[in-house]
Amino acid sequence: MNKFVGYQNFKSAYLPLLMCLIAVNSHAMSDQLYIGETIYLNDPTVTDVVIGNDQIVKAKKVGNKGIALTGVAAGDTTLKVWNGNRYFTSEIHVYPSNVKKTLEDLQTALRDIPKLSIQLVGDNVVLQGKDLTLEEKERVDGYASLFKNVVNLAKTKENNLQEKQKMIYLDVRIVEISTSSTKEIGIKWNTASVDGPKFGVLGDFKRSDIFTGSNHPLAEQIAPLAKISPFQTYFGLASFIDSKINLLQENGTAKIIARPLLSCKNGGNATFLSGGQIPYQSSGATGTPSIEFKDYGIKLDINPTISNDGIVAKILAEVSTIDQSVQVSGVPGFLTRRTETEFVVGQGQTLVLSGLVGAEKNGGGSAVPGLGKIPLLGNLFKSKSNRIKQNELVFFVTPYVYENEFEMKMGGIGRDADGVVKSELGSGLMIPNEYKLQDEQTDETENKK
Length: 449
Known about the structure:
Elements: H1 14-21, E1 28-34, E2 38-42, E3 48-51, E4 57-62, E5 66-71, E6 75-83, E7 86-95, H2 99-109, E8 116-121, E9 124-132, H3 134-144, E10 150-156, H4 160-164, E11 167-190, E12 196-202, E13 232-238, E14 242-245, E15 253-258, E16 261-265, E17 270-283, E18 289-307, E19 310-328, E20 331-345, E21 351-367, E22 382-402, H5 405-410, E23 414-415, E24 421-422, E25 436-439, H6 440-448
Parallel strand pairs: 1-7, 9-10, 15-25
Antiparallel strand pairs: 2-5, 3-6, 4-5, 6-7, 8-9, 11-14, 11-15, 11-16, 11-22, 12-13, 17-18, 18-19, 19-20, 21-22, 23-24
């Protein structure tokens, strides 16, 4: 971008005065440009101009108003300007980039690091400093990577080497919280005891006085039975039918499906996969087919770093299942739920990562054959049910910091009989009270019984 600058050493008011004060025919001064920059020397008394190396700086007279100088390539050259019989000399340096702006930007961004020195040396901005913390060093490295012509000589504390060797242990529990909601409306009839059609005939063929008990004292108090005449008949269904109103409410359950204990060095990376791989065919650059594998299941990727505020970590959690409804060349697709975040947590404290929700919905109904289809009254002989099941995966991550494996063992980190991590820094797992905690191994034991 070209710009015109009234440079202080070349102002028209300053140059004639300078020439009057100098007894010799030449005067030396310096100027600085960067590639692509143009400055304007406003002096209508200039009669001629010469550049020592026009591959570095281009000079052009702008009518009778002055000279325009443009930086073309990095390097140094000499500029001579004549004013009648007098002339002056300027040493011009062209930077490969706008290092002055780079210097100002870095000084502004890193001004809160007192042990860091930022200076312009030659064509580069040099960053120097000792005893920086790891967090400060990461900031300096990050900003230095954004600019060209920056030399980063900043160093961390000597004991930071030991800090890098610290181990971070991550107690991870992957819990599936299941919430089922069942709703049944109507009357459900029990017709399982229906025996079938029945037929009968009832009547008096002949009355007898032998067993009437007329001689007994109580006989006079008992009225005689009426005679059934003519014969009576019966036809119908012999059955026992009852009904009930259904009301069901299920409580949610929290089931631990995985509980890895991951470890990595400070600034390292820890990964976890509970699932499998599915093969698929792909073609290389030469067209040769090859077999590759795609992971699926529960994946966890954590990158923890120790800082002054605690443990800073990036975490990526993903849950994927095979989707047979979508296939390309026989290879199924995947249903994926993924979340990624960055957090700061103190050691021994638990981070909860949730939001990976899946839902299933189904329904059904029952009715007494024939009667359930009667308009209006049919509602008394049928029942409908709707069932909604939601599954949410929740990740509980608790970090611990130890110098080495030996200190980790001395600190007593490990799991108790319930699988909860115990250490001198704390223990425990947060599960909402409304959920019943189930263990995968316990379920397997009950199934065997």
